[in-house]
Structures are given as C-alpha cells and as structure tokens.
Design goal:
By secondary structure, the chain is α/β, with parallel strands linked by helices. A four-stranded parallel β-sheet has the order 1-4-2-3, sandwiched between helices. It is built from five helices and four strands; from the N terminus they run ααβαβαβαβ. The longest helix is centred in the middle third of the chain and has 13 residues.
C-alpha cells in the first residue's frame, strides 16, 4: 500500500532534485539483485527507490534496524507497506534469510553496508 501511495504523493517531490543518475545502466535489466549504497541520511531509501521504481516498477526491500516506534508501526508500516526487512537484534541472521527468500522470488533487496550503528 505504501508504494502506490508514495508513487503519486512522494515520488514527484523526490524526483525534482534528482538531476542525473549515474550507474543505472549497471543494474541488471531483470531478475533479482542487491543494491548496496552509502548511507548519508534518513532520506537515502527514497532517493534510491525513485529511479529504481521508474525502471522496474518494483519495491526495494531495504534491510533496516528496528526503531523505537512500537510493534504496530513495525509490522504495519515498515514491514507490510514499505517492505522493510527488519533486523531482529536477538537473531540478526533472520534478516539475511528473509533477504535470500525475497531474492529467490525475483525481488530487489537494498542494504546500506556502513549503515548506522545499532543501539540495541
């Protein structure tokens, strides 16, 4: 649900400051793949999602640490609507299993390897 909403409400504002995208030609034309990017701000996923969505019309399932937003937010907004793969601090390898499951289904997975240090 978040992707259809963001397509019409958020993407037009995100696209405006994007004047060029370098390296988009290096992304496979089809099939599953992983996007590994630098993490500078909380808006990074939106700026990565915009050109990818324009090309593939598909979600990018970002691996993300759990916030302090409560279970309802995490399950409804982050996981279901936005497609995030949340890291369970007690079983961190579960997120990799979920990422592999999505890749096997032909989905796109995004990760910020340098990320933010987790403060569990």
């Amino acid at each position: 649900m978040a992707y259809p909403i963001s397509r019409y409400l958020i993407l037009p504002f995100i696209r405006r400051p994007i004047t060029s995208v370098k390296g988009l030609e290096n992304i496979p034309s089809k099939g599953p793949f992983i996007i590994a990017a630098n993490h500078i701000s909380q808006t990074d996923p939106f700026f990565i999602f915009a050109p990818i969505f324009d090309k593939y019309h598909s979600k990018v399932h970002f691996i993300a640490r759990r916030g302090n937003y409560g279970q309802a937010f995490e399950k409804l907004i982050a996981t279901r609507w936005a497609g995030c793969i949340l890291i369970n601090p007690w079983r961190p390898s579960e997120c990799l299993d979920r990422a592999l499951e999505l890749l096997n289904k032909g989905q796109i997975v995004g990760i910020f390897p340098e990320g933010e240090s987790a403060s569990w």
